[in-house]
């Protein structure tokens, strides 16, 4: 019989999540972090950062050239953010479900954007959309030694 409590996960991933300036200003840091803790994910790095223009352009490089690019850079540098690395099974896709759709008008109730955001692009939270983006975004904000590897005894029950 397979021992579910001892199974090693092949789906373990890391993702970069960021509480955007609107989330910090609105006092939603704790409630946003709680959503990911409640889901059973593990926080491996976290810091409050004033994003530089250069960092913002690297972060949003895939949107360079689009009409909303400069607004995006201005918004993300408009105040401090909370930059985080989280770990969990299939976390890249699952955390985007927790975040809700980019367009807040389409974000489901129960998601962070569906419950708290009212105007796109002020949609409170960023989450990586692929393993490649996750690596690039983590490296843009963190040194390797800032990521802490640890186990939680509850993990096998999640
Ligand atoms: N955004 C926007 N207009 C658009 C698409 C995106 O203002 O048409 C903003 C929005 O704040 C979004 C961010 O750009 O969160 C990054 O876009 P992406 O497609 O990566 O969405 P996300 O991954 O944040 O849901």
Automatic annotation (TrEMBL):
<dbReference type="InterPro" id="IPR034907">
    <property type="entry name" value="NDK-like_dom"/>
</dbReference>
<feature type="binding site">
    <location>
        <position position="68"/>
    </location>
    <ligand>
        <name>ATP</name>
    </ligand>
</feature>
<keyword id="KW-0067">ATP-binding</keyword>
<keyword id="KW-0963">Cytoplasm</keyword>
<comment type="subunit">
    <text>Homotetramer.</text>
</comment>
<keyword id="KW-0546">Nucleotide metabolism</keyword>
<dbReference type="InterPro" id="IPR023005">
    <property type="entry name" value="Nucleoside_diP_kinase_AS"/>
</dbReference>
<dbReference type="InterPro" id="IPR001564">
    <property type="entry name" value="Nucleoside_diP_kinase"/>
</dbReference>
<feature type="binding site">
    <location>
        <position position="113"/>
    </location>
    <ligand>
        <name>ATP</name>
    </ligand>
</feature>
<feature type="binding site">
    <location>
        <position position="96"/>
    </location>
    <ligand>
        <name>ATP</name>
    </ligand>
</feature>
<keyword id="KW-0547">Nucleotide-binding</keyword>
<keyword id="KW-0597">Phosphoprotein</keyword>
<comment type="similarity">
    <text>Belongs to the NDK family.</text>
</comment>
<dbReference type="Pfam" id="PF00334">
    <property type="entry name" value="NDK"/>
</dbReference>
<keyword id="KW-0479">Metal-binding</keyword>
<keyword id="KW-0460">Magnesium</keyword>
<dbReference type="GO" id="GO:0016301">
    <property type="term" value="F:kinase activity"/>
</dbReference>
<comment type="function">
    <text>Major role in the synthesis of nucleoside triphosphates other than ATP. The ATP gamma phosphate is transferred to the NDP beta phosphate via a ping-pong mechanism, using a phosphorylated active-site intermediate.</text>
</comment>
<feature type="binding site">
    <location>
        <position position="123"/>
    </location>
    <ligand>
        <name>ATP</name>
    </ligand>
</feature>
<keyword id="KW-0418">Kinase</keyword>
<feature type="binding site">
    <location>
        <position position="20"/>
    </location>
    <ligand>
        <name>ATP</name>
    </ligand>
</feature>
<keyword id="KW-0808">Transferase</keyword>
<feature type="binding site">
    <location>
        <position position="102"/>
    </location>
    <ligand>
        <name>ATP</name>
    </ligand>
</feature>
<feature type="active site" description="Pros-phosphohistidine intermediate">
    <location>
        <position position="126"/>
    </location>
</feature>
<feature type="domain" description="Nucleoside diphosphate kinase-like">
    <location>
        <begin position="12"/>
        <end position="149"/>
    </location>
</feature>
<protein>
    <recommendedName>
        <fullName>Nucleoside diphosphate kinase</fullName>
        <ecNumber>2.7.4.6</ecNumber>
    </recommendedName>
</protein>
<dbReference type="InterPro" id="IPR036850">
    <property type="entry name" value="NDK-like_dom_sf"/>
</dbReference>
């Amino acid at each position: 019989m397979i021992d579910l409590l001892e199974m090693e996960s092949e789906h373990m991933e890391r993702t970069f999540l960021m509480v955007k300036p609107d989330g910090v200003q609105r006092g939603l840091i704790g409630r946003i972090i709680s959503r990911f803790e409640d889901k059973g994910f593990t926080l491996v790095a976290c810091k409050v950062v004033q994003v530089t223009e250069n960092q913002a352009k690297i972060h949003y490089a895939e949107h360079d050239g689009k009409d909303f690019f400069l607004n995006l850079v201005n918004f993300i540098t408009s105040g401090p953010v909370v930059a985080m690395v989280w770990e969990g099974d299939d976390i890249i896709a699952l955390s985007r479900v927790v975040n809700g759709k980019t367009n807040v008008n389409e974000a489901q109730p129960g998601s962070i954007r569906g419950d708290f955001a009212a105007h796109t692009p002020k949609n409170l939270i960023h989450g990586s959309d692929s393993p490649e983006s996750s690596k690039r975004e983590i490296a843009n904000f963190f040194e390797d030694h800032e990521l802490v590897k640890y186990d939680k005894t509850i993990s096998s029950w999640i």
